[in-house]
Amino acid sequence: MAFDARVFQILIASPGDVPDERRIISEVIHDWNYLNATEKSIVLLPLRYETHATLELNEPTQDRINWQVVDHCDMAVGVFWTRLGTPTGRAESGTAEEIQRVGDAGKPVMLYFSRAKVDLEEVDLGEYARLKEFKQRTYTQGLVDGYATTDEFRDKFARHLALKVRELVARDADDENRDTDLRQHTGLQLRLAEGDPLVPLAENAVVEVEQVTCPDFQHVPDDHFELVHERVTKHSHRPFRLALINDDGEGLQHLHLDIVVTADHDDDQLLVANSSNSPASSPAREQNTSIQAGSISVVNIYEPSRDYFVLVRREGGDSWTMELDLPVVHAGRTVSSRNEFWLDVTRSRTVVLDCTAYSSSSAPFTMRTAVEIRLTQRTMSWQEIVAEAQAG
After folding, report:
1. Most buried of the four, 72, 77, 185, 271, by CB within 10 Å?
2. 232 with 300: CB under 8 angstroms?
3. Residues 332-349: pLDDT tens digits?
4. Which contiguous run of DSSP H or E holds residue 350?
């Protein structure tokens, strides 16, 4: 059955020594379409010079590929193994020129470099040296990764593609509404939520946080180490989730939230921890247990192919954004993220979450929520912590 859809074109750029990877890219794109195209009204189209360019006798090959294929793409995927390709006169190779052209246009670029074993007798060492020099460059618009096998490449590209499609949707919505002021949605409210069962906080809610410092933490006996660490963490961190309250009479579909997190003091730092170094994990004994300033710690953040999970991205310096995808928010319902994050502070302050939301059933709109963190500090010996835990 026919359906209306947005089409995003993805350029496949590579030298001739990675035919399997080129085939895998097309297969992964077709798999994404099979699973998502109808539901999300989005179609991804792989662009390959061998299928989308027509060459003429008196025109430079790369020029024709550029204006017939490269300039029409919305994103590029570059794959390399041992070769960079043939120089064009303007760039080290046709592939390098295509990637630079896409990046210079401000479009997303994903680069992958194979670590598969190769017979050195079959490698052009001069060509490989050019490739290494190319690899060391930084593409500000790009995602750079490596892989050892084609199976690993397939898995990585599938996960990365799911993330990049979200970016393409957001960028496309920005382009369509560049000259239109975003409205603030009155029926949908962004909130922080906590507790079990989960309860959304009121706008500008006040949260009391007690920070416990244990100066003799390094001397905690082994049989009390986990207990002391758990109590210090429990006092110093309050887990939150993101929640959306829909008081409107209509539901929204395919929501993508871009959230910028800021605090009311310029000296705050925003830091990210994954599940291996989150507040729930045990620190080494030589670590200081005091809490870092203004940090955001996130557990299980890497779930790019799953909805309802908060994702965190570093934008440079101490600037952080959060992302959340929701398939649907029904009228009169509240939905929340499945994973938690912590707001940690070293003094009282207000944390603000500014959100731009994109939906297939609505024009982009904005939301905002804030929470005031009121901090009290308390110093306890490990013996006092153990006694309090056993008493309570």
Report:
1. 77
2. no
3. 999 998 887 777 666 777
4. strand 349-359
For residue range 116-174, list pLDDT tens digits in order: 988 878 888 888 888 888 887 754 445 788 899 999 999 999 988 988 888 788 776 65
Average pLDDT over residues 80-90: 87
Dist CA 150 CA 132 (whole Å): 20
CATH class of 183-391: mainly beta
Q: Kindly report the pTM of this predicted structure.
A: 0.53
Residue 115 is which amino acid? Answer: R
Q: What is the DSSP string of 243-263?
A: EEEE-SSS-EEEEEEEEEEEE
CATH code matching the domain that covers 6-176, chosen among 3.30.230.70, 3.40.50.450, 1.10.3720.10, 3.20.10.10: 3.40.50.450
At residue 23, what is the residue type?
R
Report how far residue 86's alpha carbon sits from residue 93's, in angstroms, rounded to the nearest whole number: 5
Please write the tens of the pLDDT for every residue from 235-262.
666 778 899 999 887 888 878 888 888 8
Q: Residue 369 is encoded by which pair of tokens?
A: 């929520």
Question: Which distant-in-sequence residues (6+ apart) come within 8 Å of 356 by Cβ?
Answer: 182, 257, 258, 364, 365, 366
